[in-house]
Design goal:
single chain; 131 residues; alpha+beta; 3-stranded mixed sheet; 58% helix
Length: 131
């Protein structure tokens, strides 16, 4: 009987949950003022040695690259807390990446809405000319 989830999926879910909790609680107190950061996805390598953590950073006036670098600089601290929370022989090395999918989705949605509005305006103009 096949398992519903592979071990990498289960470890990825647990790392996602724990890293999100660490960022929300311990990391915030260590770093000080910071924007809202959420963990959007975690990808674990097949050998469970590396974890790609995709974060979404909210805020217009925030330097997103600097925030990701700040996370990278504190990944040792987060990995040590993760090791205390996970029951694994070796904890994956953490690698942080900015997830732009949400902002890209909003941008594409606004572009589509803009094109639809222009198309409707053009259609109404042609209708008035034919009358």
């Amino acid at each position: 009987m096949a398992r519903e989830f592979s071990r990498t999926d289960r470890v990825g879910q647990q790392v996602h949950k724990e890293v999100a909790s660490i960022i929300q609680n311990e990391y915030k107190h260590r770093v000080g003022d910071m924007p809202l950061i959420t963990v959007s996805d975690v990808e674990i390598s097949r050998d469970l040695a590396h974890a790609k953590i995709f974060v979404t950073i909210y805020g217009e006036e925030v330097d997103h690259k600097a925030q990701v670098k700040r996370l990278e600089d504190n990944k040792g601290f987060m990995r040590s807390l993760l090791a205390k929370r996970l029951r694994m022989r070796s904890v994956p090395h953490l690698h942080f990446f900015e997830d732009n999918s949400l902002t890209e989705g909003v941008r594409i949605s606004s572009l589509v809405s803009e094109v639809v509005a222009k198309d409707e305006a053009r259609h109404q103009d042609k209708g008035e000319e034919q009358d």
